[in-house]
Design a protein that fits this description.
Strand 3 (52-55), helix 3 (61-70) and strand 4 (74-78) form a beta-alpha-beta unit. The protein has one domain (3-209): Rossmann fold. It is globular. By secondary structure, it is of the alpha/beta class. It contains 7 helices and 9 strands. Strands 5-4-3-6-7-9-8 form a 7-stranded mixed beta sheet. It is 39% helix and 20% strand. Bound molecules: S-adenosylmethionine (SAM). S-adenosylmethionine binds at residues 26-27, 29-32, 54, 56-58, 61-62, 77-80, 83, 111-113, 127-130, 134.
Length: 210
């Protein structure tokens, strides 16, 4: 099915690209392909207690997809004003179709590195939104939150560049899955899912308070 057709089913518009003007650390808008999301969620599932944060959510494709498929709360953070407004427009049209899903879907305008990670946030999605320097700041915020409120968290990387993997390796995450997009020629067209289990989070908390 074409991306436009998937979009139509969700009642949203997410196809296309948008470059940033003069921001060396912030990457352009481009949505995760729907086919890739289908493959990811064939082998990875989200439970009702989860809340997903998409850092650099763009027009919200991943947020809407997850919200409709798993009916759980999702949050998208976006720093480009035009793109953020498109996510809000999409939320309006999506909600006309998805009236019956009580879980909230929220978009927040601002920098991902300024988002204060909440104790209810359990799954963090990144499709190469910014430089690894910014990613390191966001990961630090996730770890700070885990130390304050120990819980199991997953980090999902789509298009996992080596410098991103290096940042994740600084923390006691376990790689729990690698999912390739079938037929993709680009070797980075894959997901890596990392998990930090609650018992390790408890240890981090103890170390921090020792
Ligand atoms: C590659 S797109 C991914 C979009 C979406 N997550 C998806 O997978 O469909 C990256 C997005 O991150 C946004 N972005 C870049 N730097 C950001 C930052 N520091 N804070 C928030 N959003 C940012 C860009 O404007 C762009 O929309």
């Amino acid at each position: 099915m074409s991306a436009k057709k998937y979009d139509r089913e969700l009642g949203i518009r997410t196809v296309g690209l948008r470059e940033w003007d003069g921001h060396s650390h912030y990457n352009r808008y481009e949505a995760t392909p729907y086919e890739a999301l289908d493959v990811l969620f064939q082998s990875y599932s989200l439970g009702h207690h989860e809340r997903v944060v998409d850092f650099g959510c763009g027009r919200g494709r991943v947020a809407f997809y997850i919200h409709r498929r798993f009916q759980i709360p999702v949050v998208g953070i976006e720093a480009h004003d035009l793109t953020f407004n498109e996510a809000l427009d999409n939320k309006y049209t999506y909600r006309l179709k998805a009236k019956d899903i009580p879980a909230p879907i929220e978009f927040k305008f601002g920098l991902a590195e300024h988002y204060k990670v909440k104790p209810v946030d359990t799954c963090f999605y990144f499709f190469n939104p910014f430089s690894s320097k910014v990613f390191a700041k966001v990961m630090k915020n996730i770890i700070t939150s885990i130390k304050q409120a120990p819980r199991t968290v997953d980090v999902i990387l789509f298009y996992p560049l080596p410098e991103y993997k290096e940042v994740v390796r600084k923390y006691p995450f376990r790689k729990i899955n690698k999912i390739r997009v079938p037929g993709a020629e680009d070797p980075y067209d894959k997901f890596i899912i990392y998990r930090l289990p609650e018992e390790i989070a408890e240890e981090l908390k103890d170390e921090a308070s020792a």
